[in-house]
Here is the input.
Amino acid sequence: MYGRVMARTAHASSAVPETAGSFPVTVDVVALTVRAGALHVLVVDRLLEPFRGQSALPGGFVLPGETLEQAAGRELEEETGLTVPARATGAGPWHLEQLRTYGPLGRDPRGPVLSVAYLLLAPAFGLPAAGGDAAEARWVPVGEEDERLAFDHGQILADGVERARAKIEYSPLAAAFCPPEFTVAELRGVYEAVWGTQVDARNFHRKATGTPGFLEPTGRLGGGGPGRPAELYRLAPGVDPTAAVLHPPLLRPVSPGRAAPSA
Amino acid sequence: MYGRVMARTAHASSAVPETAGSFPVTVDVVALTVRAGALHVLVVDRLLEPFRGQSALPGGFVLPGETLEQAAGRELEEETGLTVPARATGAGPWHLEQLRTYGPLGRDPRGPVLSVAYLLLAPAFGLPAAGGDAAEARWVPVGEEDERLAFDHGQILADGVERARAKIEYSPLAAAFCPPEFTVAELRGVYEAVWGTQVDARNFHRKATGTPGFLEPTGRLGGGGPGRPAELYRLAPGVDPTAAVLHPPLLRPVSPGRAAPSA
DNA sequence: GGCGGATATCGTCAAACTGACGACAACCCA
DNA sequence: TGGGTTGTCGTCAGTTTGACGATATCCGCC
Here is the structure.
């Protein structure tokens, strides 16, 4: 059962024990973006059993010789046409990070399957093209999923959204939703969309521009819409996308009736 | 190769595809406690290859039919004699949560192996008994590991410590290191040990006792040592151990030279 | 019993930060 | 040119922090 593993091993004394289980492993991707002021998640329609025809997060089985990140990128590209830039784990637009692992029991009718979930934060872009095991790929506003997602993907999505909501409180990660250069108002729009709340423009501007090591002015102006043109900023160079640069953090407004967020 | 999986499946159309990889899965546990004012981690000496004789985090292979949490608890008990209470994922002393998943490539000389790491926060207690695949189990002060840990356990430990340091900033999780009833000074000692910094007793007392939904006085006094006896507290009933009850959070002092923490 | 040492708890105060909101600047369109 | 819209800067009261003084209540010891 462990032929491949043992073939790479010099001594039998150093092989994986025979009593150990071996599990199929999938990666599932919670891909989030901000479109028209609302947080959207990327879902696909399943072409195959189980849960055929139902909506699901993009994902699939890890192939031998692949890393988990590679599998996440490959499945995303196969099923949705989305290509994750190689630098997506660095600073700037796009951010890919591991969320957590689910399973192996009670989540797949085919048997025990482990799923490693990834969280992708991406700028808005055109509708991706479906392919692979997926019939259609589309952005769905978070909270308006028309039906239950396949497997335990509803739980995975909830965990991913909560992770994103929590992380933009103290990290520069909100910029992962923005193009390389963006205005303070664009960044504020990300916070409002991800949190689902209103944020005061003046106080946000003070905090965002006044935090050392966060934003860097480009000197140029972003024009277009009505109103005074806004200054363009980019992320400060060399920022760790998950570093706690907002110190003290920018806390979400406490909705009186809502329970405290938990991780 | 997928006999077990397919045997549980009604239709071949709904089986795990044959191209999918199947991986041995281990769980590794970062067990932390506070002893004598310092953060300690539980390590074992390996009895078997690979890395025989070297220190490692307790852990081992997931068996068929087990959940990941069950495997973590079983390996911990087999190798160190430590029994994790069943309620360890609730509030109060002991806390077990998933950290993240490592692998499958380049971390085990036996071949591709996936490792799901868990973080355990526990009150101090007597030296556990070694057993199973481990020669000796012992508490080691974090930062004073005499040698490199086996596999990628050095990285896993660093990730676990950083998770603990970050989470006690906003959650009541520091109480997981304390007995069911504890004094404010004991709780402060946990913060000092985990963060490795000094915390002002008066300001900490104000914040800890003044935060709604965090501590609940028992009315009794904890005596013993020199000085005025302190009031005993317990966690407020029904608190989510990872809820953001400290709002705004209790931030670690910023060491001028140190880089900002990242997750 | 009294005293010094140690720890717990309560107060004080200036600095920083937040949240609410006024005011003005700089653009678009009609 | 004027009104609408959005960006940026200021003001101000209330909250929170960090630093630290002061007092309370225990211990051990003489």
About this structure: Chain A has five helices and ten strands.
